[in-house]
Amino acid sequence: MKMRLAITMLLLVSAAWAQKYNGPRPPKPDIPYLMHADNLEETEAVEAREEARKDDVTYWVAGGSSPARTPLAGPIFLVQAEKLNVERIQLYQFTVKNNRREVFFSKKKPKDSARALRLSIDRLDEGLYRLEVYDSLENGEYSLTPDGSNQVFCFQVY
What distance in Å separates the CA atoms of residue 83 and residue 46, rounded to the nearest whole number? Predict the structure, then answer.
């Protein structure tokens, strides 16, 4: 009797693991998409410019706001990764100054530096990942960026 129960449990668990993701899929690889129910909105993919001064670095993107917008304080993203290393993606909040979005880092004053916000990353299928913001975001401008890269995927929380 115990053997039958163990086999049944094993089959149920393996069936649960074998279930495939059947929700929406991003149309383009290596670009995070904001998920709004079954609708996906492409984030603004741009290259951030770098301004280095002595012990400080500012990364900036032109324009005061991103066209990719979400009303959700806890946005969810879907990414079909081919070349993008999803495990290295970080989330930062921009400061808007002089019609550009900026992130500031300082070696001398680490407390003034931007800090990465927490994300949870779940693998849904082969190369398909779900990124979810761990804490609620305030209204403002944000970017997802692979660590060590100037590539940014911008969005706005309103």
Answer: 16
